[in-house]
Amino acid sequence: MNQLASSRNDNFEYDPVLYNADLAPVPASRRDWNWFNMATVWMGMVHNVVAYEAAAGLMAIGFSALQCLYIIGSAYFALCVAMWFNARSGTRYGLPFCVLIRSSFGPRGAMIPIGLRAICAIFWFSVQAYAASQALNAIISALWPGWAHFEYAIGGQSIQMWLAMCMIWVLHGVISTHGVHRIRNFELYAGPLVMIVAGIAAGWAIYVCHGVGPLFDQPSHLQGTAFWLKFGAAVTSIIGIWASYAVNIPDLSRFVRSQRDQVIGQAIGLPLTAILFTPMSIFITSATIVQFGYPIWNPVDILVKIDNTLLTLVGGATIIIAALSVNVAGNIMPAAYDLLSMFPRQFDFNRGSKMVLFLGIGVVPWLWFDHPENIYTVLNIIAGTLAPITGIMLADYYFIRHQKLHVNWLYVFSGPYYGCHGWRMSAISSMLLTLFFLYFSQIFHIFSFINSMSWFIGVFLSGLIYSILNYKKNNMNKVFMKR
Known about the structure:
The chain is an all-alpha fold. It has helices at residues 35-46, 49-60, 65-93, 97-100, 102-105, 111-143, 159-176, 179-208, 213-216, 224-248, 250-253, 259-292, 299-306, 309-342, 349-361, 366-369, 375-400, 425-443, 448-452, 454-469, 471-482, and strands at residues 153-154, 157-158.
C-alpha cells in the first residue's frame, strides 16, 4: 500500500521550483502516526472558539437543542466521509495537499487552490490566536488588577491586548517551528485535556440549569420550508468550519502509517468528539441565559462575567491550549506547506510557519471576532469557495487516476499532469463554473436551496464537470500508467 508508483526512469531530476525536502514524499519508515495520534490531533482541533460559537449560535437562530444535535451530526458525518476519502492519497503516497493538487490542476494551476487554502488557514489562525489572546488578557487581569487600567490604545486595540497577542504569537511560534513531530506530541496531551475541562464546564452548566430537562424542552421556532432551508444552511455553516481541512487533510494523513489508522483516528477524533463537544457548548450557552439573563457566546466573556480567579485561570488556560491545538495542526502547518509550495526556494517549513504568524496580524482579527453574528456568513463563504477544490480532488484521484499516481511526474514541468504550460484547464474551468453557479445564486438571492446546500452542491457539481471534461483523457491515462 505504501509503495510509490514506479516510473520507467528513476533518474528524475526534480525541478527546484516544485521540490524541496519538506515537499518530498514521506518514506514509509517515517510514517509513525497511529490511530491514537490522529484521534488526538482531531480532539485538539474540534474544541475551538469558532466551533463553540457556531454550535451555540444555532439555538439563537431558532433551532431546538435536539435539532442542533441533528445538524451537528449531519455536518460531521458528511465531513468525515469526505476526509476519509481525501486522506487516502496522503497516506498511500506520503504527499502533502500542495503536491497532490498538481495532479488535477497542473504545477502552475495548483497555485490557485493552494493560495485559496493558504488564505483560509491564515485567517483561521489569526482568529483562533486572537481568542487565545483574549483569554491570556483575562488571566493576567485576574492575577494583576492593575493590568486592566492601562489607558493607552494603538490601532483600535488596548496596549494590554497587543502585549497579550505578542505573547500568544510567540507561543505559537515555539510549538509550530519545531516540525510536525513536536506538533504530534503537543496534540497527544492537548486534545484530551481540553475535553476534560470542557466536560467540567458542561457540568457547571447542567448544575446551573438544574439538569438537562429544561434545555431539551425548548421548542423550535422554525417550521416548514423555512426550517429545512435554515437546517441545510446550518449544516453548511458547520461544514464551513472544517471545509479547509477537507481539502488539505493529506497534510496530516501523510504521516499516518496505514489507511486503517487514519480511518479509525478520524472516526474517533472528528465526529465522535464533535458530537460530545457540541452539547457542552449548548449547555454552557443555555446556562448563561439562566445565570445572566442573556446568551453569551464568547467563552472569555463568560469567565470575565463570573469573576472567579481560579475559574479564570483554568478556563483561560484551556482556551489557550485549545487555540494552540487547532492552530498548530490545522492552520499553521497547512499554510506553511502552501507557502513553501509556492516559494520552495525561499521557504522551508520553519520559515513558512514564521511567515504565517506574521501574515496573521494583517487579518486584524479584532474587527471580525467581536461580531459573532458574522460567523455564519463567513463560514458559508468558506464552505462554498473550497467545495469545488474538494470535489475536483476526489474526482481526479478516484475516477480519473483510479488511485494511482506517478509521483515523480508531480515534481517536474512535463508529463501527464503538466496540462497546457503547467495549467490543467479542465480543473480550473470546473472550479470557476461551479463558483459562478454558487455565487450567482447567492448574490441575486435566487435558488434558496442552492444557497443552503452550497458545500454539497459545490463538491458534486465540480466533480461531475471535471469528470466529464476528462472522460476522453481517462483511457489515455490508463494506458500511460500501465507503461
